[in-house]
Amino acid sequence: IRKAGATPPGGSRPSSGSCRFADYFVICGLDTDSGLEPDELSGKRASENFEQSPLRRTFKSKVLAHYPDNVEWNPFDQDAVGMLCMPKGLAFRTQVDNREPQFHSYIITREDGSRTYGFALTFFEEVTSKQICSAMQTLYHMHNAEQYDILHTPMSPKSPKRLEEQRPRPILQAAPAISRLQRFNSYDISRDTLFVSKCICLITPMAFAQACRKVLEQLYQAVSSPQPPPLPLESYVFNILYEVPLPPSGRSLKFSGVYGPVVCQRPSTCELPLFDFAIGEMFELLGVENVLQLFTCALLEMQILLYSQHYQRLMSVAESITALMFPFQWQHVYVPILPASLLHFLDAPVPYLMGLHSNGQDDRTKLELPQEANLCFVDIDNHFIELPEELPQFPNKLEFIQEISEVLMSFGISPEGRPHSSDSQPQYRSFRSVDMVTDKRNGNLASPLNSYLLRENETIARLQALVKRTGVSLEKDASGIRDARAQCDEEELKMHQLNIHVREVFANRFTQMFADYEVFVIQPSQDKESWFTNRDQMQNFDKASFLSDQPEPYLPFLSRFLETQMFASFIDIKILCHDDEEKEHTLRVFDSRVDKIRMLNVRTPTLRTSMYQKCTNIEEAGNLSYLQFEKADCIGPDNDSIEMRVHKIDHTALHPHLLDMKIGQGRYEQGFFPRLQSDVLSTGPTSNKWTKRSAPAQWRRRDRQKQHAEHLYLDNDQREVTPGKYIQEARNLGTTIRQPKLSNLSPSVIAQTNWKFVEGLLKECRNKTKRMLVEKMGREAVELGHGEVSITGVEENTLIASLCDLLERIWSHGLQVKQGKSALWSHLLHYQESKEKSATPGGLGPSGLIHDTERRKSDGGVSAMPPLKISLIQDMRHIQNMGEIKTDVGKARAWVRLSMEKKLLSRHLKQLLSEHELSKKLYKRYAFLRCDDEKEQFLYHLLSFNAVDYFCFTNVFTTIMIPYHVVVVSSKKLSGSMFTANPWVCVSGELAETGVLQIPRNTLEITFECQNLGKLTTVQMGHDNSGLYAKWLVEWVLVRNEITGHTYKFPCGRWLGKGVDDGSLERILVGELMTPSTENDDRLCRTPPMQQSPGMMRRFVTISPNSKPKLNTGQIQEGVGEAINGIVKHFHKPEKERGSLTLLLCGEYGLVWALEQVFQHGFKSPRLFKNIFIWDFLEKSQVYFESAEQREVNPDENWQSRVRHFCRFMRAINSTPRNIGKDGKFQMLVCLGARDHLLHHWIALLADCPITAQMYEDTALIKDRTLVNSLIRVLQTLQEFNITLEASLIKGVGI
C-alpha cells in the first residue's frame, strides 16, 4: 500500500485497487522439513528459553502457505505476517494441557503509515511426524539430566541456606523435586500425544473483526468436526478471497461461512468511521479513570507501552484508544503487538504505541525498558497504569468521566472495570466469552464438537450445569438453538451500540473544544506546491489567539496538544481541503458536527466558559427502551443506521460452490488443517459481476492509502481527487520515521533503522529550536518598547517540556545499560562522579569550573560585582540541593530549565559530551550521542536559544530558597566616603519581597538568602538620616540571583537626604535585567523588552531645567498615548503572559513620566537656586480646594466629590510615615489615581483651578482647553482595567 500516485513495488497501481473482502488466506505453523528450530530471538527475553522445559520453549514458526501468491495493491510481507500470526513462535502441548483455540487480530503498518489488518485463529494439532516427536523426547532427556544435576549437587561445607541462594532461582521454582518435575513438565513418547500450534489467518484491507472471526471459527470447525463440511474447504476459501466484495459505505453485506451466514456492515459517509472491536472490553479491563489517563497520554504523543498475556487485549486496547481520538489520528510508530524478536524497537527515540506480550510470570520490575522518562506503561491484565510525570489533566475530566460512566452503566458495565473476576462479568460480556469457544451464531450448536468444547471450558461447564437444573437441554432443543443465535446477534448489536455511544461522547468533547477552530486556521497565501516546499517554516494555526480564548483550566492540556504532530496534520489537511468535495471523510464528518454545534449555540468567543456540555448526538434507537438516555438529536443517527443495516441486508454475495478440482482433491483427514490446493486458489474467477467492470460506481474506491486515511470510508461514487497526494505528504511531514520495518533482523537493517532515528532526532531538534525561537522572537519583536518584560506562561512551559522530552529521547537512544528513569540525569551523575574523583586534593574546588580567562564579562559598571563562575557541576549541585524535587526525571528537567535560563545549555552539554571515554562506556556505537556530525549540529541548534531571555527556571520553581547578592554603587565624585547614615534596601519581585535589609555602610554590599522573588521589579532604598553628613548620591543598585546569574540594574542618579534634591530619604527604583556582553564597557545595556528606571529623565527636568531640550505639546501627547497604550496592551494579553505593570506605570516613558511632562510644560521658571516641584503646585491647589469647599464656591455635586477625593489622597500621601521626596509623592499619587480610575477627574479639576493660572505660562498644555480634553479622553480608557499596584509603590498609604 503506497501513497496516492506512488507506484507500489512490483508494477503499476491496479486500475481498481482492492475491492475484495480479503486479500490473503494464510496458514502458519510447524515446517516438518526444517524440524525444530529454537527461536533465539523470541526467547531472548530474560534468557528464558533453555531454562524452560522443552514444552515451554519457543520454536520458529513458518508461513506454510498463503493464497493467492501476491496481489498488486498489497504485496505479501512474509516476515511481518509470520511474526504477527504467531508472535511467540510455535507452542507445544500434550493431551493433559488446555488446547482451546485462541483468536487475535493484528495490524501491519507500512512505512508510509498505510495499514492492513490480519485476523488469526490459533489452534492445536496432533504432531504426526516421528522425527519431531523423538526430537522432543531427546530435548526432555537432556533437560531432565541438567535438572537432576542441579538438584543433586553435593553439599559444600557452606551452610545449606547459602547454597540455595546460589542456585538459579527460576529452576528452583520450576523443579522442587524430580517426581513433580516429571509429572508436570514431562513428555514420554510412548505415553503422551504431542500437539503443536497452527494458525489460519485472513488479511483484509478493512477491519471487520467480528466477521473474520466467524469465518475462521467456522473453517476450524469444519476440519475438527467428525462430519466433513458440505463442500471442500477450497470452495469456502476461494469464495471469501474472490467472490465476497467489500460492502459499500452505508450498506450491509451477507455472505456464507461454512455453516452459517456472516453479516458485516459499513457505516455511511456521515457516520463515525468503521470500528469493529469491542470498546467496552477496554473499559472493563482498565476502568474509566485509567482509560482517560491513557487517552491523555496518547493525545499528547507520549511513548505508550501496553502489556498483557493476551494478544487480542493488546490489539483491542490499542485500536480502541486510537479510534476514540477522532478526528485526530495517531501519527507515530504503531505496533499493537510487538513480536518477541523485535524488542529492540522499544529503544526507538520517538513517540510510539506498542503492545508487549507478557508471559504471566514476570512482574513489571523485571522489564528492562530503555527509556521511562516519558513512558505511559499500561498493565492491562492487572488493571494498572503508570504515568509520566507532569501529565496535564484532560479538560473537564470529572464531568467527562461521569458522562462516560453513565453510558457504560446503561450497558451493564461497571465504570471501575473488573480487573480479575470472570464470573461477575455483565451479561453483555458473558456472551462474548462463550462466543470464543462455540459459534452459536451458525445455528450448528448440536454438533458433538460443540458439546466437547463446552465440556472442556469450565465456565461453560458451570453454565451447562445450571441449564440442566432448569430443565433445558442444550444439545437437543432446536428452539433453544434459534434463541441462542438470536441472542448472539443481539449481543453483537449491543456491542456496536455501546461503541457508538462511547465514541459519540468522546467525539463530542472535541467538537465542543474546537467548535471555532476554523477561525484560527492560517490559510497560506501561496499555491500548494510552494506551501509544501516551505511547510516547515509555516505556522498553520494561530495558537496564541486560540489559547487566549480558552478557559484557564484547559490551558495546560491544550497548549501541549496544539504542539503535537496529530494536531498539525489535522490542520494541514484542513488547509488542503478548501471545498467540501475535496474534504477527507474524517474532516467532513467533524466539520458537519462543528457546524451543528455552532448553529445550536450561537456562541461568541467572549462567552467561552468551561461549562460542560453533554453529548446530544446519540439518537434513541426506537427499540432500545432499556437505555435511560435523555438525548436531543443526532448528527448521524448511527444507532438506527446500524440496526436498519443489520435487519435489512443490502447485498448478498455469491454462495460458495464446487470448484474445478480433480477427483480425490479436497478430502482431508479430520482434525488437521491441510495445505489447500494452490492451483485453484492462486487466481480468482475470470468472470465475475463485480470484477469484470473495471470499477463500477457502486464499488469504486480511491487507492488504498487514501482509504486508510479515512478508514476506507468513501462516498460510493467518489472519484480520485488531487489533494490525495498533498494530504499524504502533509501527513508525513515532520514525522521522522513512521514505522520501522518488521523484517529479517540483520545487523545492517537494525543499523539502518537506527540511522533513520538519528536523522529524525536531528530534524526534530532543528524544528523544536526554531519553533521556540520564533515563538519568543516573534513576541519580543512585536512588543519592542511597550514595557513588556518577556513572555512566560503556558506556551513557554509547553515548549520547554517538549524540549526536555526530546533531550531524554536523545539521551536514551543506544544506551548500553539503563540506570534510573532519566538517561540524561544518569549521564550527568556519571560525569559528576568522574570529575569529583579527579578533583585536585588541594581543595581547589571541583574541576568542571571554567576559570577567569573564560568568565563572562558583564557591563554597566558591574565591575562592582565579579561575574559568577560557569560550572556544570555547580549547577547540578543547585538542583541536588532543592528538596522539592524528588525524581531523576524532575532533576533533569530542572537542570535543563536552569541551563536555559543561564544561556548555558549548549555549552554544558558540549562539556558533558566532551568526555569521550564516558560516552563510550555508556553508549553503543550507533547511538545519537556518538554520531559526531549530528551531535555537533544538535549543539549548534541549542546554541540559538542564547538569543532570547528565558525565565523557565525562576517562574516554575517558585518556592525554593535562592541566594541574592546586592551592591549599591554610590557616586565617587561627590563625597561618598563622608556619608555617615545607615543605608537599607528592600528588594521586590513578581513573587515576593524581602522586607528591609540593612547594608553595611563601609562595603555597601550584602548577600542574603530568601524564597524565590521571581523576576525582580523594584528596589526601595533609603537611609536613617543619622550622623553629620546624611546626604548620599546613589548611581545605581545591582542585584544578582546567585543561582541563575541574572543581574538586575536599578538606576537612580539622585540624592537621598534632607535639604538636597527633592528632600527624599528613600526612593523606589525600577529595574532592568542586564544582558551579558563580551566587551567590558560602561555603556548602559538596554534589553529591548525591559524598561529603564524613571530617574534619569526626571533628574534633568527638575534640577537643571535648561540643560534638556523641552518637549513640545505634540511630543508630550504622543508620550501619554504610548504610556496608556502599553497598559491597554498589557491587559489584553493572557494573564500568564503579562509582564510587569510597575514598569508601565513608573518605568522610563511610563505613565508617571508622561504626566510629569504634562505638568512640566509651561511651568513658570523659578528664581535662581530654588527648585519648584510639581508636588508644590499640587499642594497649593489642595489648599485652594479645601478652602473653596468650605466656602461652597461650586454647588455642583460632581465637582465636590472630585475635590474630596483629591484632597483625601493628597493628605494621605503627605502624612505617610515614609521619607519619600516630592517626586516620590507625585509618583504615588499617579499610581493611586490610575488604580482608582480618578486621574481624568483630577486633570479636569486642576485645569480649572486658579492656582494653575498663577504658576503656568499662557502657552502651557494644561491651559489649552482642547489639549486637556483629549488628555482626559485618553486617560478615560484606563477605566475598564482593574489595576493592582505592587505593594512597594504604595507602602504606608492607608487608602
TrEMBL record:
Keywords: Guanine-nucleotide releasing factor, Membrane, Phosphoprotein, Repeat. Its main location: membrane. The keyword ATP-binding does not apply. SMART domains: dDENN (SM00801), DENN (SM00799), RUN (SM00593), uDENN (SM00800). Residues 43-584 form the UDENN domain. InterPro entries: cDENN_dom (IPR001194), dDENN_dom (IPR005112), DEN5A/B (IPR047278), DENN_C (IPR043153), PLAT/LH2_dom (IPR001024), PLAT/LH2_dom_sf (IPR036392), PLAT_RAB6IP1 (IPR047277), RUN1_DENND5A (IPR047294). The keyword Signal does not apply. It holds the Pfam family dDENN. One of its GO terms (cellular component) is membrane. Residues 962-1070 form the PLAT domain. GO terms for biological process: retrograde transport, endosome to Golgi. Belongs to the RAB6IP1 family. This is DENN/MADD domain containing 5A.
